[in-house]
# Entry
Amino acid sequence: MRILHIIADANPGGGTTAVMGLCQDLKKQQDLDVGILSSYNENLKKFCDDNSISYFSTDFFTLNVWLLSSTLAELVDYFQPEIIHVHGTRASLIFFFARARLRASYKTVYTVHGYHFLHRGRLRRIIMLPIERYMSSIYDVVVHVSHSDAHLASVHGLFFKKQTIINNGFDFENYHDIDSKDIDIIFIGRLHEQKNPLFALKVAQEILNRRILFVGSGPLQEQFEAKLSESCKYSNIEWIPAVAADRALELLARSKILLFPSRWEGFPITPIEAMALGTVVVASDIAGTNEILNEGCGMLIEGFNSGDYAKVIETILDNDANRAVLAGVARKKARARYSRKKLSARYFEIYLSLRSPGAQP
# Structure
């Protein structure tokens, strides 16, 4: 079976991480012929080369949508997949325009990865909602990564031929515990308004005598660096640009607390990774994240008062025994519910259900 995954943004992040993990599992567990069509990124190219995954790249962020949709159609027809799996709104929009140019008919799956446009201003909602309604109706199966996304779809009148919910997961079989936790607090994610890095920095500035590490790059990087340079007296705060996935997991495993004050999410992977690695998560109480951090496996904080976050973090760091209990509960839940291998198998079941009768494996 040949599957082509289409995702617009190839930079490190939740959606890209989820796609890479799914493709890796499909190759290892099912020995499928897998391809990724995305923007160009050196880390993604290396990942595909290392895992024998076909990699095709084009500029998904060009303003010439006509040319982009034509290029996408050509690349799809060149690969000749049995099933096309589209990830995220931007990729879905370009695929929508490319459909008329395809030389063949393909079965399709769409994983939403969060309705982010609903959080980006009234004008964007007005424009994107009718587009999303129509786009969603063209796919054979639509997958939501969280119950909150499925609820949003229902509230806003999105129609699907068939839909299901499959959470993001973590690969427990290929990580090793790190005994030494030498980083007190870590923020890891894109420097983007969604992830709220400037607020996270404000929280960090209220916590003294703790080693705090920020990891990430993105559109707010210039503002973030300026704020950080203004705070030169805070020698306990460090920042490094975005790193490869393996390095990010190592840093996360070495950390006692993950600070995760996002403004909105679909179903974020980073808190799941932290739970699996014994790192306590302190996060904003928002849809998606609060589906993960319930049942005593993390700390959810309402609103965005930096003092509230700093107080909770200091309380956790001051009590190693309590932190160990929180980490243990979180690790147990992560293993029970978010095994990437099991979740990838559910996608494989969807692919099998879409196959033409008599198709070859």
